[in-house]
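Shape matters. Shown next:

___
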Amino acid sequence: MGKAGQVLRQVLEEYEVSQYSLAMALNIERNSVYRWANEKRDPSAETVLDIVRALKELNPEAAKAFVERYLGNEVKDI
């Protein structure tokens, strides 16, 4: 599976954001967040944007880290 889930898991752990709190912020079931974080399923591109928005509400630094790690060099020159 893709990089999004791996990065999401790292960021959630590092910034102490629970899968449950992210699920609540996204208004979805925790199972979806679990599947992404454990690389069982990739979030869609639209969902990645929703994840960033939710993380901004929960912990802006976590949102920044997720974007930087997920998009990496792709956003440095923008």
